[in-house]
Write a structure and sequence with these properties.
The chain has 307 residues and is of the alpha/beta class. Helix content is 32%, strand content 19%. A hairpin with a 5-residue loop joins strand 1 and strand 2. Helix 3 crosses helix 8. This is Peptidase M14 domain-containing protein.
Length: 307
């Protein structure tokens, strides 16, 4: 794979201003339907879950995007809570469908043991455009903090705020794709006026643990479940995955809260970010969805066992 050293918007070495961001947004095209793919699937789950509309994004001229979460119908205040998030980066398709499939096929498995809150598509505008950013060229997954510049992040933070301190586990579902290297990382470098440094894309599933609250046994329980579904990414020649040291098979660490990552929003003891590789010749879309489901099931199961 090769990647261009320059991006077609902006001046190399100069951060984007509003004209460059407008030029970038004008290049984005709607490629699929949030209403048809996601909202319709959520509607089908209304018989089993309470459906909460926790916000609405207004992005003219592209329209308005209601934000939905699924909540355990038999919610109990004496139980701990689990958060499952998908589509924080809208282009990461298996995160969205993995969250929906988990809710549909396994949501009832935990009745009476833990309250489930599932936000399957945090960034619907980006879902439709198969992109990482929102329309303001902001990455929601670097924006989970007070006074967030990303409406997607702010809405989710508001949803979970009353439950902080009650979450036992949070599994945030993501993908690492070839377009990270060919489009999104070059765009990020151009936006910030920095040089693009090609790296590489790991072939396989991996996890990101919280460097400030590492839970290695929890991560390895998820890896053990997922490797029955799809392959685990090996370390590269430097012993790294996407530039971070591999601390255990298929596991790296980021500092969730300082980086403004979604997986850091709950204060839960057990947190992780999954990363599926959908462009692998060794994996199908169905396997990627199944890997996300396996990760959620294993993560919640481990958390309950060790609570």
């Amino acid at each position: 794979m090769t990647a261009s050293a320059t991006y077609p918007i902006g001046i190399p070495g100069t951060a984007w201003g509003e004209p460059e961001k407008a030029q970038w947004r004008a290049r984005q095209r709607r490629q699929r339907s949030y209403a048809d793919d996601v909202v319709a699937a959520i509607d089908r789950l209304r018989t089993d879950f309470d459906v909460l509309q926790y916000g609405e994004l207004d992005y003219p001229p592209d329209g308005r995007f209601p934000l939905f979460a699924l909540r355990t119908r038999a919610w109990r205040d004496d139980l701990p809570c689990a958060l499952v998030t998908g589509g924080v980066h809208g282009y990461e398709t298996s995160g969205v469908f993995g969250a929906l499939q988990f809710a549909e096929r396994h949501g009832g498995d935990f009745d009476g043991r833990i309250n489930l809150l599932v936000a399957p598509c945090v960034s619907p505008w980006a879902y439709e455009r198969i992109h990482r950013w929102n329309p303001h060229a902001i990455d929601p997954n670097r924006s989970f903090r007070a006074d967030s510049p990303a409406a997607e992040s702010a809405a989710l933070l508001q949803l979970i705020a009353p439950l902080r301190g009650r979450f036992l586990v949070h599994v945030d579902l993501h993908e690492t794709t070839d377009t990270d290297e060919t489009e999104f990382r070059p765009a990020l470098a151009a936006r910030d006026g920095k040089p693009f440094q090609p790296d590489g894309i790991p072939d396989g599933f991996y996890l990101v643990d919280d460097a400030d609250n590492p839970q290695p046994a929890f991560q390895q329980a998820i890896i053990a479940a997922v490797q029955k579904v799809t392959h685990i990414a090996p370390a590269d020649a430097r012993g790294e995955i996407i530039g971070s040291p591999v601390v255990a098979p298929g596991v790296i660490e980021y500092a969730f809260v300082p980086l403004g990552l979604c997986a850091g929003i709950t204060g839960a003891r057990y947190t992780t970010t999954t990363e599926v590789y959908p462009d692998s010749p060794r994996a199908t879309p169905e396997q990627c969805n199944a890997a996300q489901v396996a990760a959620v099931r294993a993560g919640i199961g481990f958390a309950l066992q060790h609570a």
